[in-house]
């Protein structure tokens, strides 16, 4: 079993392609590539942690959200993000939280969507995506 981490998938969000300069011509292409990449890496017994903004769309489009969700392998956990409304939160996640503290081997991790720094004895440790929803 392994832990996998991702954030800001924004399934169905056509403008995220331009906002974050994603290399896709359409949301359908982006959605398919995201799913294929997860299916190539994440095993059925792995934990997949989505650190916010799973999907973007109309809250009444639950069938589409469910399709994306069930296409992803592993036990899926949601750290709730900016665009995760009730339609996303109500999917059958293994867990849904605003923040989670987990162990990954001998490392302690704090998972959340919003960018922060934690002061530690080793210095400042940045976590989370950048404010525009893109990883730097």
The N- to C-terminal Cα distance equals 28 Å
Spatial strand sequence of the major β-sheet: 1-2-3-4
> Which sheet architecture does the biggest sheet show?
4 strands, parallel
Q: How confident overall, as mean pLDDT?
A: 84
Number of strands: 8
* Helix-strand string: EHHEHEHEEEEE
The low-confidence runs, each spanning 5 or more residues with pLDDT under 50, are 121-136
What is the tally of helical segments? 4
| Global Rg | 15 Å
Assign an overall shape.
globular
* DSSP helix fraction: 10-25%
Broad structural category = alpha/beta
Strand content: 25-35%
Structure description:
By secondary structure, the protein is of the alpha/beta class. It is built from 4 helices and 8 strands, in the order E-H-H-E-H-E-H-E-E-E-E-E. It has a 4-stranded parallel sheet, with no helix packed on it. Strands 5-6 form a two-stranded antiparallel ribbon. 26% of the residues are buried. The model is unreliable at 121-136 (pLDDT under 50).
Write the layout of secondary structure elements.
Elements (H helix, E strand, L loop, with lengths): L2 E4 L9 H4 L7 H15 L5 E4 L11 H10 L3 E5 L6 H4 L5 E3 L1 E6 L2 E6 L3 E5 L2 E5 L9
Parallel strand pairs: 1-2, 2-3, 3-4
Antiparallel strand pairs: 5-6, 7-8
């Amino acid at each position: 079993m392994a832990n996998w981490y991702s954030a800001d998938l924004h399934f169905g969000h056509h403008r995220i392609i331009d906002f974050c300069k994603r290399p896709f011509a359409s949301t359908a292409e982006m959605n398919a590539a995201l799913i294929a990449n997860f299916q190539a890496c994440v095993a059925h017994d792995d934990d997949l942690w989505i650190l916010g903004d799973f999907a973007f769309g109309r809250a009444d489009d639950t069938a589409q959200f469910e399709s994306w969700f069930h296409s992803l392998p592993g036990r899926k956990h949601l750290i709730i993000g900016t665009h995760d409304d009730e339609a996303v939160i109500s999917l059958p996640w293994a867990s849904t939280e605003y923040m989670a503290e987990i162990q990954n081997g001998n490392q302690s991790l704090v998972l959340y969507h919003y960018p922060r720094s934690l002061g530690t004895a080793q210095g400042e440790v940045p976590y989370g995506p950048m404010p525009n929803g893109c990883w730097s």
